[in-house]
Amino acid sequence: MSALVSVESVDAGAIWRVTFGQPPGNILDRATLRELSDTFHEARKQTALKAVCLAGAGEHFSYGASVQEHLPDEVASLLAAVHQVVMSILESHLVLVTAVRGCCLGGGLEIAALGHRIVAARGATFAQPEIALGVFAPVASIVLAPRIGQAAAEDLCLTGRTVSADEAKRLGLVDDVVTGDVMEAAVDWARRTCVPRSARSLRYALQAVRASLVARVHRELPELNRLYLDGLMTTADAVEGLHAFLEKRAPNWVNE
Fold this sequence. Notes:
Structural class: alpha/beta
Distance between the termini: 45 Å
Shape: globular
Largest sheet: 6 strands, mixed
CATH class: Alpha Beta
Number of helices: 10
CATH architecture: Alpha-Beta Complex
Helix content: 40-55%
Strand content: 15-25%
Number of domains: 1
C-alpha cells in the first residue's frame, strides 16, 4: 500500500500478508502508525478477508515507538497515533496473527499483543523497556494482563526485562515457536483455522469474544494517555530518561 506498509492478498482474498516498517528497527513513528491504521481500515472493508498476518520488515518485528517523538513537543500526537492504530486493529474484527522475528520491543510488543495468535522465531526476544527510559506503556498496561495474567504483565512492565521466545511461550505471550519462516507459519495457521470458516461469522465471533477487551480499551486508554501527558510528562525524570536514551548515556534521575 505504501513505502511503509506492504500488503499481499492470498487464498482468494481470505488472508492478507502485511509487512510494515523500515529496517532495521521498523520504528513506530507517526507516519508508520498512520499507514498501519489505514491498512486495517481498508482491511475491514474487504468482505472476503478473514485473517491478517502481520510482520515487521527485515530481521526484526519492531524496536518500538519513536523515542524522538516521545519528547514533550510531539508526544501527544504520537499517543494519538498509537490509540488510532490500536482501535483500527480491534475494530477491524479480523483475526490477527503476528509473526515475530528478532526484537519485539515497546510499542512493537503492544501491537503484537493485540494478535489472536503470536508466532515467534526461535531467536525472537520480547520486552516492554519503557521503564528504563523513565516512562510507561499505556497500551501494554491494558492488554498484557488478559493475555498473560496480572503478575506477569506487571513483571514485564515494571522491570523492562527481556524474555526469549521460549519464556514468552511459557508465559502465554507466544503461542508457537518455530524454526522456519514465521510469516509462512502464521499464514499456515490462518489457512488451517480461518479459511474454512465464514468471514461474516468470524467477524461476529470476534466482536463477541473481544467485547470486554474493546470496551476496556475504549474506557481506559484515554485515561492512561492523560496520565502520561498530564502527569508523567510533567516530571523531570521522564524528560531526562528520553534525552539520556537519545544521547546514549545513563540517565541522571532526580526522582522528581
